[in-house]
Design a protein that fits this description.
Helices cover 81% and strands 0% of the residues.
Length: 145
C-alpha cells in the first residue's frame, strides 16, 4: 500500500511547483505515507493498485487533507494575531481544492478566520465548485456514473 500511495501522491509533489513550497502539503504527504505504513505493517495488507487500495487511499486522503487544512487555517489565524508571516491564500486554496474544503469550512467557523473577506470567500466557493466538477469529470471518465 505504501508504494501505491507513493506512486499516486509523489507526482503531484514533483510536477506542481507551488505544492513543493506548501509546507502543509508536505505535512499531508508525510501523514499519508505514515498512515500507509501503519496500515500495511500493523492492520492489514492490500494488493498494490487494487480497488481496495484505492478506497483506503481515498479515505486516508480525505482524513489527512482535512486535518492538514484545518491546521493551516489555525496557523494562519495565529500568525495574523501575532503579526507574523502569513500563509499565502493560494496555498490555502490549493488545500481546499485537493479535498480539504470541509476542513477549511470548519476552520473558518471555529477560528472565525477568512469568513468575512469577500474576495477570499468567492475563491473558496469557486474552489468547491471546481473540485465538484473535477470529481464529476473523473467519475464520468471512469464510467462510474
Amino acid at each position: 500500500m505504501l508504494i501505491t500511495f507513493l506512486v499516486v501522491i509523489a507526482p503531484f509533489l514533483m510536477l506542481v511547483p507551488p505544492l513543493q513550497r506548501n509546507k502543509f502539503f508536505i505535512l499531508y504527504f508525510a501523514l499519508m505515507m505514515a498512515s500507509a505504513y501503519v496500515t500495511e505493517h500493523f492492520l492489514f495488507r492490500v494488493q498494490m493498485f487494487s480497488h481496495k487500495a484505492f478506497l483506503v487511499f481515498v479515505v486516508y486522503h480525505l482524513a489527512c487533507i482535512n486535518i492538514v487544512t484545518f491546521m493551516a487555517y489555525g496557523t494562519d489565524k495565529r500568525a495574523a494575531q501575532n503579526g507574523a508571516w502569513r500563509i499565502p491564500e493560494a496555498h490555502l486554496h490549493a488545500l481546499e481544492f485537493l479535498g480539504g474544503w470541509p476542513g477549511a469550512f470548519a476552520a473558518q467557523k471555529f477560528f472565525h478566520h477568512k469568513n468575512k473577506k469577500r474576495s477570499y470567500q468567492i475563491m473558496f466557493w469557486l474552489m468547491l465548485v471546481l473540485e465538484c466538477a473535477a470529481v464529476y469529470i473523473i467519475l464520468r471518465y471512469l464510467k462510474l456514473i
